[in-house]
Amino acid sequence: MSEEIETLANQAIGKWVVVHIIGSIIAVLGALYLLTGMQLLPNTPASTFQAALMLGGGLIMDFFGVIKLTKVLRARKAAKKQP
For the segment 24-52, what is each residue's pLDDT rounded down to a tens digit? Predict the structure, then answer.
């Protein structure tokens, strides 16, 4: 596998890992407010509705990031097997 492909794969992996981490943080902030009423950041979320949206949106971002990350890792593995 050429260095250019490896560099692109590493950049894609980094991008999807960041999406996964940000989605997890957003989901945790929303869930924390829904379960305990605690706000780690001032006025974030400001209501139960916002907390529910944060939880849902964070889980969607998290899931999407993991799916895309898996695709990139499988493509990189397949590219390494080719002569």
Answer: 999 999 999 999 999 999 989 999 999 99
Give the closest residue to 6 by CA, choosing from 76, 65, 81: 76
Nearest residue to 51 via CA among 65, 62, 40 = 40
What are the residue ranges of helices labelled H in the chain? 3-36, 48-81
How buried is residue 45: exposed, middle or buried, by Cβ count under 10 Å (0-12/13-18/19+)? buried
As a whole number of angstroms, the distance between CA 76 and CA 57 comes to 28
Residue 6 half-sphere exposure toward CB, CA atoms < 13 A? 4
